[in-house]
Amino acid sequence: MRKLARLTLWLACLLVVILAIVSAILIFPGTPGSARSLRFQGFVLLPGRDAVQVLDYLTVYQRQLFVTNTSAGDVYKIVLRARTLPGPADVSVLKGDPAAHGVIVDPVSGTAFVTRSGANAVDAFDRSTMRSIKRIAVADDPDAILYDPAHRLIYAASGVSMAATLIDPANLKSVATIPLGGSAEFAVFDSRTGLIYQNLSDSNAFAAVNAATRTIVWRYSLKQCEFPTGMAIDEADNRLFIACGKNSRLVIFDLNLRRIVTSVPIGFGTDSAAYDSELHRIYTTGLLGTLFGHPPGDCRLLSRHRHDQVALQCTHAGGRSRNACIVRWLHGLPLPAKAGRVQSDPIARQRRLSDGRFSKTPGRMKGATAASKA
Fold this sequence. Notes:
There is one protein chain. By secondary structure, this protein is mostly beta strands. It has a single domain, classed as 7 Propeller (Methylamine Dehydrogenase, Chain H), CATH 2.130.10.10. It is about 10% helix and about 45% strand. The strands form 8 sheets. Strands 1, 27, 28 and 30 form a 4-stranded antiparallel β-sheet that branches. A 4-stranded antiparallel β-sheet has the order 2-3-4-5, with no helix packed on it. Strands 6-7-8-9 form a 4-stranded antiparallel β-sheet, with no helix packed on it. Residues about 295-374 have low confidence and may be disordered.
């Protein structure tokens, strides 16, 4: 009995220590590690209502950054400044129901829209006053959202219902539902073709959706990609960048050839992906707290930037009742002179050298300028 009691006590103490370590990681944000292409500039404190909060999407529109709090349902608007970090006066909040996910802005009316999977709705809100305008019912479990400028429609993708809802931003009404045949993750709009490319995570594929005809034009099976989540597009070179959550790969897809041209290893549990058209870099973030940067042409691995929870972290900042969510502020830097080659795409290399947009020096690009990243 004494041995059993000691073992139980030892296990209880071990559990307490583990919980303390996990709590410390969540409470006290660590400074991001060094990287060749990113520089940490500071934190932006966000007000919070709960002890534990989970931040989800980041959306930049003009000089405003929108961040969603999926656990509390809040949407934060942060006014961006050229040379200084935003302060408390630059942050405003739209309170709502869990769980808030994607935010998009209609550039014609200026009205913003946020998906809420808990309410199976998309809420339209005023960016200037951060007040709700109207709730629009959509297919169950809405997550990703984008704006289709060719047809002036809001496109909301729903995972569980495997469908996309089209919303008319002029009258704030749902106008159509498109069956997708798979669980929807991130999507991007291609202004060249007017199509929407939609990741389907459960079938390891993506679909080309025509919002005008409300149909899927074509579909591609991603044999090299398990659980496709994040997606970004380089419209200049007609390339898709698809983040694969389960097998930790970034797949580069040529839209002209309609085939995968290469793939590179990235961090485990990758979710989002973003393309910087000025610096010609693709960024992906992973569950283990690693941000990867790649130039899309020859897919050189630039850097592995260590930070916590996909550039976002919730923390308990000083005091029992003061909760704050922190956005980590990162700044793009010129590319390193040397970078290890992962895989090479000869088609992209020939195109890159012929059009003169990239220099012939490995790892460097002409006209690269610094750009803020979150």
